[in-house]
Design brief:
Elements (H helix, E strand, L loop, with lengths): L2 H4 L46 E3 L2 E3 L4 H4 L15 E10 L9 E10 L1 E9 L16 E6 L17 E7 L9 H4 L2 E9 L3 E9 L5 E9 L5 E8 L6 E10 L13 E5 L4 E3 L6 E2 L7 E7 L5 E7 L4 E9 L2 E8 L6 E9 L3 H10 L1 H12 L14 H10 L1 H27 L6 H31 L2
Antiparallel strand pairs: 1-2, 3-4, 4-5, 5-6, 7-12, 8-9, 9-10, 10-11, 11-20, 12-19, 13-14, 13-16, 15-18, 16-17, 17-20, 18-19
Helix pairs in contact: 6-7, 7-8
Length: about 450
């Protein structure tokens, strides 16, 4: 299959092996990657060097490039620094320390004034992050937002912003933490228009479940939306699902201010967060949370708007230098919609008052998240169909060898595509996994047919 053909769909290959030394900003093949600044090239959700994912012996394909390509609007204004849309993907070889010889992948998106980045170091033996004992630098999942100074960290954690606790029916232990111990399947821009930017990140965990984080920002709004959802592996039920967001108002380190205290403020109360003790949020009365410091370094912090309709419970706790928000959905199948933001250089009381006054706007943004529609994936038909049909017709021996597999692969792909179309405006991620897995299986049969034809032509079989 030509590179042009391969670039228009999800292509599954084996996990990466040892990489030759590559400079940051270059692909594993040594070709220079596009710059992170958004250009006229249509954005798409890049896989790790064009690779797919292989977990627990099962092939899981990710979104195809063609499904995500979105042209820039003709009146796109790149000069608006608060409304940007870029993505970058780099791979380099770790050349020292305990992970020498591993590949380090950094995938980032910019949406509006915020950014999201995932860093993973992958073991060349199996192409996965370290499972047993991770060290600093093995895995980062972070939000880039406002910060008091260039040398400080942003208010939402740039290292451990998002995690998920998942336990499946019949299992005594939780699935290894998806955002740190599962390989990132996809991170990129899903939609870019002159009024909103949408980005998505997908992780496929060790059990085969899919965790998705969708980021949405609207022009003229200094907050962003986040939708979290988990699709379990086929035939499995989820008995526990909890998402955790981490912030560190002002900065991660105490910087000598022993009197600083992490606090939670809602429209009705302001409480100091106890260390490793949960403070329960009243979802009916407290749909907006402000996390900040009190007594010192109190002019920087974070906002969080909650959709009580999709949540069964929310708790907040102090955890070292961080504040952690735990979110339990009403059911494991329920997407969790949130609105997040942060601020700097303003006293926490003034910033909190401004956020609480925006309650109608926050509620409207949460409603938009629940009705968001995105472009569908590529259809089941492929530009290669006619070529393959002609090849099989001219060479009956190929039909005898792989005809049944070809018919089965096409039928299963057609059924998966039909299920996707019938699922509504925003189908469950599990259907997308099935669709792209079936597409990859079809493409693999096409590859084997071409291979068999070449062998027969050159060597007579």
């Amino acid at each position: 299959m030509s590179r042009a053909m391969a670039g228009s769909r999800a292509v599954l290959t084996s996990p990466p092996g040892p990489l030759a030394a590559s400079r940051e900003g270059e692909s594993e093949s040594g070709a220079q990657r596009p710059p992170s600044r958004f250009s006229s090239t249509p954005p798409f959700c890049l896989r790790r060097g064009g690779r797919g994912v292989r977990l627990a012996g099962a092939a899981i394909a990710v979104l195809s490039a063609a499904a995500l390509a979105v042209p820039l609007p003709p009146d796109w204004d790149p000069s608006d620094s608060a409304f940007q849309a870029t993505e970058s993907h780099t791979t380099k070889l770790v050349e020292e320390g305990d992970r020498k010889g591993w590949s380090e992948h950094v995938d980032s998106v910019r949406f509006g004034a915020y950014g999201f980045s995932v860093t993973q170091r992958l073991d060349p033996e199996h192409g996965q992050p370290e499972q047993a004992r991770q060290v600093w630098g093995d895995a980062f999942v972070g939000i880039a937002g406002m910060k008091p100074a260039f040398y400080m960290s942003s208010n939402w954690s740039p290292w451990d912003f998002l995690s998920a606790a998942v336990r499946l029916e019949g299992d005594a232990a939780e699935v290894p933490q998806p955002t740190r111990r599962a390989r990132l399947a996809c991170l990129g821009l899903r939609e870019v228009t002159n009024r909103r930017v949408v980005a998505e990140a997908d992780w496929v965990d060790a059990a085969g479940g899919l965790l998705r984080a969708r980021f949405v920002v609207w022009r003229g709004v200094d907050r962003f939306g986040l939708v979290l959802r988990y699709a379990p592996p086929q035939g499995r039920n989820v008995v526990k699902l909890q998402y955790v967001l981490v912030c560190q108002p002002y900065d991660y380190s105490d910087r000598g201010y022993w009197e600083r205290r992490r606090c939670l403020t809602t429209a009705g109360r302001s409480v100091e967060l106890p260390e490793r003790q949960d403070v329960t949020v009243d979802l009916a009365a407290e749909p907006q949370l402000v996390l900040h410091n009190r007594y010192a370094q109190s002019d920087s912090g974070t906002f969080l708007g909650l959709d009580a309709g999709c949540l069964a419970g929310v708790t907040v706790r102090g955890e070292g230098a961080t504040a952690q928000v735990s979110l339990t959905p009403k059911s494991p199948a329920t997407p969790v919609a949130l609105v997040l933001g942060d601020w700097v250089n303003e006293g926490w009381a003034l910033a909190a008052g401004r956020f609480f006054a925006a309650r109608p706007a926050v509620a409207d943004e949460l409603a938009k998240l629940s009705t968001l529609e995105l472009p569908p994936p590529a259809p089941a038909e492929s530009p290669d169909d006619a070529e393959v049909d002609a090849l099989v017709q001219r060479h009956p021996e190929l039909a005898q060898q792989l005809g049944n597999e070809l018919a089965t692969a096409r039928a299963e792909l057609a059924a998966a595509w039909q299920a996707w179309r019938q699922a509504g405006a925003d189908p469950p991620p599990a259907l997308l996994v099935t669709l792209e897995t079936r597409r990859t299986a079809r493409d693999e049969v096409y590859r084997r047919l071409r291979e068999a034809w070449v062998k027969a032509k050159l060597w007579g079989g």
